[in-house]
Amino acid sequence: MVWKESLQHTALSTKQINATPELRILLIDENRQRAESLTSALNNSRYKISHLANPDMSLLKQVDQIQPDIIVIDIESPSRDMLESLGTISHYNPKPVVMFSGEGDTDTINQYIESGVSAYVVGDLQTERVKPILDAAVARFREFQKLKEELSDTKQQLVSRNLIDQAKRLLMKKKNLSEDDAFKAMRNTAMNTGQKLDDVAKTLISLLNTI
Amino acid sequence: MIEPEQTDLTLGFIPLTDSAPLIVAKELGFFSQWGLNVSLQKQNSWATLRDKLHAGLLDATQMLAPMPIASTLGLGCPKVKVITPLVLSLNGNAITLSEKLHQEILQENNIAHVTLPLAAYLLQKVISVRKMQNRPKLKFATVFPYSCHYYQVRDWLASANISEEDLDIVVVPPVNMVAFLQSGEIDGCCVGGPWNAKAVRAGIGLTALTSFDIWQDSPEKVLGLLASFQQANPNTVLALTAALKQACIWLENIPNRFEAARLLSSDQYLDASVDVIAPSLIGSCLTHISLPPRAIPSYNQFSKSNNGSINVPEYIRGEWLISQMAKAGQLKNIDVPADIVREVFRPDIYQQMRLKLEDQAVQFFRRSG
C-alpha cells in the first residue's frame, strides 16, 4: 500500500529527478547473477551500481569511498545492523536504504519501518521494476529530508519566539517598561548592534537574571 | 494449567550462546509442556528482528535488554510498545582485541605481557602514539546502537578517561567480527559468545575482559513482545514465560550446560563447534591461544537459586539501562515519559507466571506421591 502511493508521488517528480546527475548505488547482494542482471538493466540510466558481493569485509570502507546516494540491501543480510548504526553512533549522513525481501510480506513490515523516512522494503528485486523502485526511493527520501528541514526551521522559530517573550517579560518586570516599549528597546538594540533579535534576547535574559 | 489463547507461536533468535533458554525450551519440550507449539526462526540482524516483531511476523523474540525501551521510545524506528516479562540472561559479552593491537599495547607500554582483565589505561599510549604519527584512530566494534555491548565499551574506556572522540566505534554484525578482526578493519570488539572464543581459538585475538568485569550481573538478553499481543493473549504469554523460566532453571546446573552446548551447536541454531560454545557456558573465558583460560563463573548466567530475582524484569534494571542510554547521548531531544520503565518492564506478569510454575510443581509432587 505504502509502495503504490509512493509510485504516484514519483510520477510528479520524475522530470525533476532526470535532470539531476548520476546517482551512485551500493548494492549489497550475495547473489551475483541477480546483481549482474540488475546492473545491465540500469545501463544507460542515471544510476551507477557498485556491487558488493561479500559485504562482510568492507561495507564501511565502501560507504566511505563510494559515498553512495542509495544503498540497496537484502532485508535478511546481517549487514543491516551496520547500516542502521550509520546515522546513530557513527557520524555519516543519512542515506536512503532500499531493502528487498524474498518473502511476500512486505506490506505488513513496511508499516513498521520508518517507511518513506530512510528505508523501506520492496518485494523481490526484479529487473523490470528496479528503475521505478529506485526513482521512488530517491524521491521519497528527498521529500522526507525537506520535511525534516522544515520541521527544524519551525522548531528554531518557536525557540526564538520563546526567548524574545521571556526577555520582554523580564524587561517589563525589572525595568518597569510597557510591553510595547520593552519590544522596541530590544529591536533598537538589535538594529544598532547588528545582532539578531533572538541573540539580543539571549544576552538580556542572562544579564537580567544575574542582576 | 494455563489455557493459552494462541498456541502456535513463532519466536525469533540471533545465533548466540545466550539464546540457550529458547533453544533448550524447544529441544527439551518445555514449550509443549505448557501447551505451546513454538517454531524458532533464526534472524541475521537485530534491526530486522525488531521490525518483524513490530510487524507481528514474530510473536515474541529474544532481544538485547535496551531494545524494548528503544522501540517504545521510537529510537531508530517508529514508536511501538514493546514489553518484557522476563530477563533471559545476565553478562555473556567480552571485549576481544586483535593480535595486532595486543602487540601494540605491549610495545608502546614497554611490557612483556598483559594482566587480565586488561586495564583500559594501557590503550592511552597506543592512542596518543597513533595520533602523533598521524595514523588512523583505533576502531572498536559493537553489535547494535541500543546494546549493552556499546555502553560497556564506553564505560570501560571511560574508566581510563578515554572518550569516544579518541577512537571510532562502529557496529558490525557478530557473524563478521572475527573476519574483521583478522583483516584489521577493526582493532577490537565487544560481542557475545561464541564469537570471542572463536577469535581466540583461531589465534586472531586476545579476550581482554568480559562484560562481567565491567558491569556485574546486569540483564543482557530479555524476552520481548508487543504490549498489544500480551493484552490479547495473556495466558499465552504466561505459558511462554513459564516455559522459558523452566529452561533458565535447567541451565543453572553446570553439567546441563555442556549438554546445552551440544544442542546449540547444530546447524539450525548456532552452526558452530562445541569447542567454542561450551567454554563460556561452563564459566571459562578463553583468553589467548598461548594463555590459559580465566575462570568467570558468571560468564553466562541464566538463573540463580540463591537469588531468585535474576529473571525478574525489575524496575531498577530498566532505570539503569535508561541511564546508560542517556549517558551515551541517545535520549537527546527525546521525550521520555516518566513511567517508561513501568510500561516496558513487567514484573507483574513474571509474578503471575511464578505462581503458575509453583502450582505445577505442587501438582507434580501430588501425582508422584
TrEMBL record, chain A:
One of its GO terms (biological process) is phosphorelay signal transduction system. Residues 144-205 form the ANTAR domain. One of its GO terms (molecular function) is RNA binding. It comes from the Bacteria. Residues 24-138 form the Response regulatory domain. Keywords: Phosphoprotein. The modification 4-aspartylphosphate is found at D74. This is Response regulator NasT. It comes from Paraglaciecola arctica BSs20135. The gene is nasT.
TrEMBL record, chain B:
Keywords: ATP-binding, Cell inner membrane, Cell membrane, Membrane, Nucleotide-binding, Transport. Its main location: membrane. InterPro entries: NrtA/CpmA_ABC-bd_dom (IPR044527). The keyword Endoplasmic reticulum does not apply. It is found in: Endomembrane system. The gene is nrtC. One of its GO terms (molecular function) is ATP binding. GO terms for cellular component: endomembrane system. It comes from the Bacteria. This is Nitrate transport ATP-binding protein nrtC. The keyword Cell inner membrane applies. Gene3D superfamilies: Periplasmic binding protein-like II.
